[in-house]
Q: What sequence folds into this?
């Protein structure tokens, strides 16, 4: 009987029921999309961030101690051998190391004023043989600093046809230096340190930070200018890493004291801490540490985006509740005679309210299920257009959305239920 | 033994309008009473109070010796469900349910729907062959008979009909009156509100209302058992 009556309503009031289903579908789809994007995109962006920008810094052990004592990395005078750089390719997680470059800083004179120079690899061809294995990698700051904007000229590339056999007297000049000294691509500049080198400006770059005050040189040129043959100060490493968790952080603090199985798991997971640990094993004179700078500022934007999405979700749910309350109330009003009659022939309030609620919740269920899938589509569109990543469906979102929509539908039905309770059969049945 | 229904000094007051004004009335079991009066005299108000759909402003209403004038809405619903069968001028059938389903709705809210019993009730009003028709496929008279079957289905103590023939032509009016005669013979108590003299005259007893007061209450001389 109950279901015959529900069926009757669906057939009789299909337009209203369809509207309720659509409203619920809309609310559900927005909530689903927003929550999925919110919960998923954080991880996605973090993963994205790790694909560029250096997130591990390697220095010599003594430099690390001095810098932690004086909280500065200027006053260090400790160096690594240039040839240890290749050892990065021998660690367990070598495949997760995307790019790296050695650095050597120095002060030289340019037109009588002090000028900071940094020697590095741009697009270096690294190739060596160790313990019967061949290690080959092309790496350098052209990848590590792929956000550099070339304002003039081009990027220096030691492997490009033009530069391959042309020596190492080339320079990439930071935007601020170029402006101060009025330099452009093709100019020759004279740098004086331990030696004097005349280098040709290949390009002018803008990085948006203090690298704009630096002249980047091939490593060998910088080594001659600073008199540090075969030496480097640091290595920047960009690696794909897994997010740290509680155990990993515990093990990382004291790998020697960790339980063997914890250590094993940690060592074989691409945590930043375990990669650092492996680098220090491969280069015993080094100290490797994670840098979080880039991720943190991006995280801030992410937080604001999440706040915005939460707001949109809340507003859309409030909107749905209002629309549902309108529709359900008008549906109940339209049926007031029928509901009044049920009361007159003995239906208690609970049973009528139960009937109406069952109808609404059934309709809402249909709306919610279709809305969930539409929302999944929305999430993918948002993911791809805004964040450049596809969105994984999270079970937790389905649960959360189900609870929210259930609550919204119930709250939206409250005014109608109150109408049902107040409905007096004597008033609707006798056409006074 | 208590009377089936007893109104003691009942008034229903809306603002300063006395829709019912100090009405006292007793109906015995098995009686067939017509309540007559011009429009606005308080007939429907009286029906609503007897039918447990409204409470009097003043006075007592005893149904089966039990005072119902102070009961809560919920227990009034229960009393109405168990003791009263209602017939309306506008029939008030649920338009998406067929005839037998409309009868079953009353069973559903009373206890459990029983299609056999519902069909038997339709047979009593001569509508067995229309059981699967929707209200829109039935004539006014047929709809009113479905309404009567619905009122009868839970074996009420008393049938209350408000202008049951108000929307019917003479032929159908006679069919309905025949059913009432039949019910009366079977011992059902009937209270029928009407402004139609023909419907009033066939009852056992006629009560006339005017401005909320009873102006006459007489047995019908010509009444044939
Ligand atoms: N809910 C109400 N509010 C105010 N006045 C009412 C209400 N119900 C009925 N009345 C008034 O009470 C009087 C009696 O009404 P009613 O019992 O419906 O008359 P009848 O059924 O005899 O035509 C009328 O004047 C009507 O306007
Ligand atoms: Mg009336």
A:
């Amino acid at each position: 009987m109950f279901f015959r009556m529900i069926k009757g309503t669906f057939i009789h009031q299909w337009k209203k029921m369809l509207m309720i289903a659509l409203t619920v579908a809309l609310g559900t789809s927005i909530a689903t999309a927003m929550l999925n994007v919110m919960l998923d995109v954080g991880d996605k962006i973090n993963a994205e961030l790790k694909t560029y920008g250096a997130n591990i810094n390697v220095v010599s052990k003594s430099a690390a101690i001095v810098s932690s004592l004086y909280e500065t990395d200027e006053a260090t005078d400790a160096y690594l051998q240039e040839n240890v750089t290749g050892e990065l390719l021998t660690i367990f997680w070598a495949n997760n190391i995307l790019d790296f470059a050695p650095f050597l800083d120095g002060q030289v004179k340019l037109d009588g004023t002090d000028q900071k120079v940094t020697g590095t690899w741009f697009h270096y061809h690294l190739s060596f043989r160790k313990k019967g294995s061949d290690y080959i990698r092309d790496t350098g700051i052209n990848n590590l600093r792929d956000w550099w904007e070339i304002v003039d000229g081009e990027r220096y590339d030691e492997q490009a046809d033009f530069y391959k056999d042309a020596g190492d007297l080339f320079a990439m000049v930071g935007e601020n230096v170029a402006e101060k000294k009025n330099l452009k691509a093709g100019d020759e500049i004279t740098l004086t340190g331990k030696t004097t080198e005349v280098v040709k400006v290949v390009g002018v770059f803008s990085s948006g930070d203090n690298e704009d005050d630096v002249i980047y040189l091939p490593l060998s040129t910088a080594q001659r200018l600073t008199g540090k043959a075969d030496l480097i100060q640091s290595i920047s490493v960009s690696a794909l890493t897994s997010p740290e968790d509680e155990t990993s952080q515990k093990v990382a603090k004291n790998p020697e004291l960790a339980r063997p199985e914890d250590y094993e798991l940690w060592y074989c997971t691409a945590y930043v801490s375990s990669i650092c640990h492996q680098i220090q094993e491969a280069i015993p004179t080094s100290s490797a540490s994670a840098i979080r700078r880039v991720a943190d500022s991006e995280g801030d934007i992410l937080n604001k985006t999440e706040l915005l999405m939460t707001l949109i979700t809340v507003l859309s749910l409030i909107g749905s509740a209002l629309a549902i309350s309108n529709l359900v109330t008008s549906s109940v009003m339209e049926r007031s005679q029928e509901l009044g009659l049920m009361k007159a022939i003995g239906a208690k309030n609970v049973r009528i309210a139960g009937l109406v609620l069952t109808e609404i919740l059934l309709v809402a269920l249909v709306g919610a299920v279709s809305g969930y899938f539409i929302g999944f589509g929305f999430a993918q569109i948002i993911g791809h257009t805004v964040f450049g990543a596809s969105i994984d469906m999270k079970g937790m979102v389905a649960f959360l959305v189900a609870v929210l929509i259930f609550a919204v539908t119930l709250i939206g039905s409250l005014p109608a239920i109150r109408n049902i309770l107040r409905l007096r059969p004597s008033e609707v049945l006798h056409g006074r | 033994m208590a009377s089936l229904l007893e109104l003691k000094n009942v008034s229903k007051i809306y603002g300063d309008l006395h829709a019912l004004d100090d009405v006292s009335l007793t109906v015995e079991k098995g009686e067939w009473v017509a309540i007559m009066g011009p429009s606005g005299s308080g007939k429907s108000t009286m029906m609503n109070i007897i039918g447990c759909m409204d409470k009097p402003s003043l006075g007592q209403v005893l149904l089966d010796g039990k005072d119902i004038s102070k009961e809560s809405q919920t227990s009034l619903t229960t009393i109405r469900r168990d003791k009263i069968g209602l017939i309306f001028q506008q029939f008030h059938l649920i338009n998406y349910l067929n005839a037998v389903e409309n009868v079953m709705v009353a069973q559903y809210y009373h206890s459990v729907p029983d299609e056999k019993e519902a069909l038997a009730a339709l047979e009593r009003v001569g509508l067995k062959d229309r059981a699967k028709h929707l209200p829109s496929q039935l004539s006014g008279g047929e709809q009113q008979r479905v309404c009567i079957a619905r009122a009868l289905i839970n074996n009420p103590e008393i049938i209350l009909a408000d202008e049951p023939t108000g929307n019917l032509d003479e032929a159908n009016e006679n069919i309905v009156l025949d059913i009432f005669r039949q019910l009366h013979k079977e011992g059902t108590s009937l209270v029928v509100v009407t402004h139609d003299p023909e419907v009033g005259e066939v009852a056992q007893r006629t009560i006339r209302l005017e401005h909320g007061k009873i102006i006459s209450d007489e047995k019908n001389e010509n009444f044939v058992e």
